[in-house]
Amino acid sequence: MSRSTQYIGLNNLAREFVKNALSVETYPMTEGMFDETIKGHIYHMPVPEGPNTEYVFKEVVQASPWSSGPMIFTHLQCTLTKEIGQVCDMGEYFSWMRVPDSNVEYDPDLGIYSL
Known about the structure:
By secondary structure, the chain is mainly beta. The protein has one domain (6-113). It is 5% helix and 50% strand. Strands 1, 2, 3, 4, 5 and 6 form a 6-stranded mixed β-sheet that branches. It has a 3-stranded mixed β-sheet with strand order 7-9-8, with no helix packed on it. Strand 8 (106-107) and strand 9 (112-113) form a beta hairpin. The mean pLDDT is 95.
């Protein structure tokens, strides 16, 4: 068995959510086990009603357990920018859940991993 970085990324609920993005950017999110660049995405979403100017969801590393190399699980961090320039941290969304006694390494439909 060879060792490698395994980018798992977002769970399926998150992937479905970001399909509504108005635009998507890539950025160097992290490095793999051989110093290779792992790219993440920044999703510009439709702005909620109110005095808001920008609604952004940034893909970030949530966990990277080891299984013949790091498995990189990501979730979304949200910021909302107001008309006055205030940037509000809106928290994390679509996080994976660790279920140690699961019989699968990970399930993107359920958003679980067991490592």
